[in-house]
Amino acid sequence: MSSFIRNAWYIVAWADEVTSAPLARRICNEPVVVFRDTAGKAAALSDRCCHRGTPLSLGEVVAAGIQCGYHGQVFDAAGRCVHIPGQERIPEKARVPSYPIVEKDALLWIWVGEAEKADPSLIIDLPQHNDPQRWPHRHNVYHIGGSYLLMIDNLMDLTHLGYIHRKTIGGNPSAHVGAKMETVRTDRGLKFTRWMLDSVPPPTYVNVYGFTGRVDRWQEFEFIAPGSVKQWTGALDAGTGAYEGKRDGGFQFHVFHGLSPETEKSCHYFWSTATGFRQNEPEVGERFFIESGATFLEDKVFVEQQQARLDEFGEDWLVDVQSDAARVHMRRVIERMRNPGAATLAAE
Ligand code: FES
Ligand SMILES: [Fe+2]
Fold it and tell me: Is 348 exposed, middle or buried (0-12, 13-18, 19+ CB in 10 A)?
């Protein structure tokens, strides 16, 4: 049985990935084609023509919808066949499944579960994607050959920064292991803040901001089930009041991590960086974006290799330690969403 949480919004694409050509992407193991109608409105259909089963993504967008590239049938945004070349009558059954899709904050969100439960108010807000003055942002998507849950695991245990990312955003391992951590549970996940007070800034920070001494550095991470992690990070010169709440004006950025399952063992990693410093210097934001992208590729390498080992040996033999606390809670939230009744019983 599939273990996907199907009744949830997942990112299917960055809004600017879907232009005049159809885009093929698999979400929760469903092949999906995303396209825009001539008015620019996004639509998502199952990526299989109901005539002979070829992927609709091989076709093209026409005035009435998407035209299959094989024999030219046309399907509208609701998946109804509206044109069959050389034939007047369109069979009632000639349709392909369609999915609710919502464009919001530069992203396209899809719902592959029961359509009547697709409530757009459940989609998270990412205002930094619409605020180019204060938060100029850049974005990308990586394909990861590992489960989306392993990627979220990675974001929930930041002690990896000092090892995987030693040369980029990580810096000194002991600063991470000794970080002060405050965690709160939320309705849809959890939020934790890590403080590295009076620490040596990592190379990336020095490169883009020019710190000369030690810093008070924070990392605030919020997991919103099933696949979103909002990150707000920054640093100020040590002892200038960041911990007490004065976090404005220094070095800070938002990173968004959106993980959408592709298959059980692969996912799409949508990420963005929005810089809240030197906003008028595009090269600074660009450099930060490039360095972040390099960092996330370091995660990709580890998670893909990890997935291969887990495929080979299962997971029963793995041992949790203290730094797994947030990760374990995240997995519980996922389990509860996957199986609401069972999780309640188990907790009692
Ligand atoms: S397979 Fe699509 S029109 Fe024939
Ligand atoms: Fe990482």
Answer: exposed
Tell me, in angstroms, the distance from the centre of ligand 2 to residue 168's CA.
10
Mean pLDDT of 308-314: 98
The pLDDT assigned to 174 comes to 65
Rounded mean pLDDT of the chain?
93
Residue 241: pLDDT above 60? yes
Question: Is 4 part of any domain?
Answer: no
Judging by DSSP bridges, how do beta strands 81-83 and 74-75 pair with one another?
antiparallel
Answer yes or no: is 143 within a domain: yes
Best mutation site among 48, 51, 56 for ligand 1, i.e. most ligand atoms within 8 A of its Cβ? 51
Select from 79, 105, 122 the last residue of a domain: 122
Q: What angle do CA 14, 16, 18 make, to 5 degrees?
A: 85
Could you give the number of structural domains in the chain?
Answer: 2
Q: Does ligand 1 have an atom closer than 6 angstroms to the CB of 83?
A: no
Is residue 133 in some structural domain?
Answer: yes
Tokens at residue 130, please?
A: 């619409």
Residues 64-90: tens digit of each pLDDT: 999 999 999 999 999 999 999 999 999
Nearest CA to ligand 1 atom 1: 52
What backbone phi and psi angles, to 5 degrees, belong to 314? 70, -165
Domain ends where: 122, 156, 173? 122
Q: Which pair of structure tokens corresponds to residue 57? A: 């993504």
Task: Report pLDDT digits (tens) over 252-296.
Answer: 999 999 999 999 999 999 999 999 999 999 998 998 899 899 999
Q: Determine contact, residues 159/321, Cβ cutoff 8 Å.
A: no
Are residues 333 and 214 located together in one domain of the fold? yes
Q: What is the CATH number for 279?
A: 3.90.380.10
1: in domain? no
Q: Ligand nearest 84 Cα, by number?
A: 1
**Do 112 and 44 reside in the same domain of the chain?**
yes
Q: The pTM is what?
A: 0.93
Instruction: Among the bound ligands, name the one nearest to the CA of residue 70.
Output: 1
Ligand 1 site, residue 71, Cβ cutoff 6 A = yes
Please give the residue range of the domain that contains residue 53.
Answer: 9-122
